[in-house]
Design goal:
The chain has helices spanning about 5-30, 45-55, 80-119; strands at about 40-45, 65. The longest helix is centred in the last third of the chain and has 38 residues, at about 80-119. Helix 1 (about 5-30) runs antiparallel to helix 2 and helix 1 (about 5-30) runs antiparallel to helix 3. The chain contains 3 helices and 2 strands, in the order H-E-H-E-H. It has one domain. Strands 1-2 form a two-stranded antiparallel sheet.
Length: about 120
């Protein structure tokens, strides 16, 4: 089994992919806060993580959807800077956690390799 086939590394990679996409969507929403008619977009983060954890996960292609139920301004834009700022902070925190877990996973692999070469 190669490192890329390791289930833990694969799961963490998908977790990071989902966080990256969500971060890109949040930043796009924030960049379009003054665009008339712009509708806030997002992914169902928890659904995508569940889907990514399944065996049928072949490629990363989450469904991006418009967020409903947000206050709309007279120009038709429904971006909330407060909502997007909170989501961005949450997404960055999750991404940093994923990177740390991935780093720890690789440290464990390197430790096992070094122990195997010193015997």
């Amino acid at each position: 089994m190669s490192l890329l086939e390791d289930p833990g590394i694969s799961a963490l990679t998908r977790f990071l992919d989902a966080n990256m996409l969500r971060s890109e969507l949040v930043m796009s929403n924030m960049a379009n806060i003054d665009t008339p008619g712009y509708r806030t977009r997002d992914i169902d983060f928890h659904l995508e993580l569940e889907r990514a954890g399944g065996l049928e996960y072949a490629s990363f292609a989450p469904a991006v959807h418009q967020v409903r139920g947000l206050m709309e301004r007279p120009d038709g834009n429904n971006v909330s800077l407060e909502r997007e700022s909170l989501l961005l902070a949450d997404t960055q925190m999750r991404f940093n956690l994923g990177v740390q877990l991935l780093r720890d996973r690789f440290k464990g692999i390197l430790s096992a390799i070094h122990e195997g070469t010193t015997s």
